[in-house]
Amino acid sequence: MPVDRLTQPIPMQSQPTRVMIVDDSAIIRGMIARWVTEAGGFDVVCTASNGQMAVDLAERHRPEIVLLDIEMPEVDGLTALPMILKARPASKIIVISTLTQRNAKISLKCLSLGAVDYLAKPESARAVDAAAEFRRDLVEKLRALSATKPRQSRPSLVPVPTVPVPAQSPLPKSGNVRPQCLLIGSSTGGPRAVERVLQDLKPVLATIPVLIVQHMPAMFTAVFAEHLQTLLSLPCHEAKDGEGIDAGTVLVAPGGRHMGMVCVSGKPIIRLSDAPPENFCRPAVDVLFREAASVYGGAAIATVLTGMGSDGTNGARHLVKAGATVIAQDEATSIVWGMPGSIVKAGLAHEILPLNAIGRSLKGLIAGASR
Q1: What is the pLDDT of residue 169?
Q2: From the candidates 137, 200, 311, 330, which is the catalytic residue?
Q3: Structural domain contains residue 266
Q4: Cα–Cα distance for residue pair 91/254, rounded to 1 Å
Q5: Quick one: 116 and 201 in the same domain?
Q6: How many other CB atoms are found less than 10 A from the CB of residue 195?
Q7: Among 31, 81, 205, 258, which is disulfide-ready with 287 (CB 3.0 to 4.6 Å)?
Q8: Which one from 146, 187, 334, 361 is the annotated catalytic residue?
Q9: pLDDT digit string (tens) for 255-289?
Q10: Does residue 251 contact residue 235 with C-beta atoms inside 8 Å?
Q11: 158 in a domain, yes or no?
């Protein structure tokens, strides 16, 4: 039986992490403040009912994490976000919004402006199941972000650093099998990281299918796929059960459903599933990696980007055993080095690279092997 994430041990910290809560509802502010305090290891240093108040309080109270609502009077979250980061550049901002298509688009815009993560707010505090899930996700994200060391720069601006020696040395490079499918797994901080990798890969994207599992709510994955299509000028959409896996197409796992694959008459096709979550996740990176190892074997190539938890590690074992190549993002450029760090610590990474070197490495492997 899975252990409740709220009961997991809290990492020891010298001082509580400073949190600011920004929401126009006094009820929501009080509820979140209570949950944050009860989680332990956090100090709610201030609350604000609109964006302008949040900017003023950020300068005064120096929060390390800001929980920012989108829809507020006077100054909304989208407008306030860059102002808060200007006042307090070291703050990590989690955007909070109700699940609507409009809010999903705004949330993704907030991520592009420097927010590190997002949370889907329940429609009503009386929706007990939704509120309980929101609380679990909130505490998990706070703990993951609190455990990371503060950085002076954001990943997209970091120059290529020297890659630190991991706990276990990287695996030797796989053979010269022509890659036939690129797999990407990511979570916290993932949307911006995925964008960066795919933009760096644009010259070779037409030659290979790309399958992405990004931990996101259902409404968000469709909007994310739409955004990628605009960015890349290539077919990008939520995967559909039974569709073929074709070169030049980017498929995003739908929120709330696992994305895997099977081989039918010699052709790989998508298989969506409502099976139970794995690693508390659905979609889970493990499902995609495991099934891709069975279908593509050594012709798969995978990268695990920033994200909390360890989703992807078990699936990576299957990929490595099948002869596939696995690349992990390094700690210095990850918002949270949970998923890629787990890959590295398990000795499953062929390369450990900063974000702005991953696309270049993948491009070399894809283009080089296809010559």
Answers
A1: 64
A2: 311
A3: yes
A4: 30
A5: no
A6: 19
A7: 258
A8: 187
A9: 999 999 999 999 999 999 999 999 989 999 999 99
A10: no
A11: no
Residue 235's φ and ψ, nearest 5 degrees, are -60, 120
User: Do 215 and 355 share a structural domain?
Assistant: yes
pLDDT digit string (tens) for 163-217? Answer: 444 446 677 666 668 899 999 999 999 999 999 999 999 999 999 999 999 999 8
Element housing 147 (H / E): helix 128-147
HEC secondary structure over 167-228: CCCCCCCCCCCCCCEEEEEECCCHHHHHHHHHHHCHHHHHHCCEEEEECCCHHHHHHHHHHH
CATH at residue 298: 3.40.50.180
Encode pLDDT of 15-71 as tens digits. Answer: 999 999 999 999 999 999 999 999 999 999 999 999 999 999 999 999 999 999 999
Query: What is the residue range of 349's domain?
Result: 181-369
Structural domain tally of the chain? 2
Active site residue 311: yes
130 and 194 housed in the same domain: no
Catalytic-residue membership of 24? no
- Please tell me the predicted confidence (pLDDT) of residue 173: 65
Tell me the percentage of the chain whose pLDDT exceeds 90.
78
Same-domain status, 146 and 186: no
Same domain, 205 and 342: yes
* In a domain? residue 10: no
162 is a domain residue: no
Mean per-residue pLDDT over the chain, rounded: 89
pTM: 0.88
The verdict on 336 and 230 lying in the same domain is yes
187 is catalytic: yes
Looking at the structure, do residues 218 and 112 belong to the same domain, yes or no? no
In DSSP terms, 120 is beta-bridged to 97
Out of 200, 215, 286, 361, pick the active-site residue: 215
User: Residue 256 region, left (φ>0) first, then alpha (ψ -120 to 50), else beta?
Assistant: left
Residues 139 and 186 in one domain: no
Report the alpha-carbon distance of residue 30 to residue 337 in Å, rounded.
31
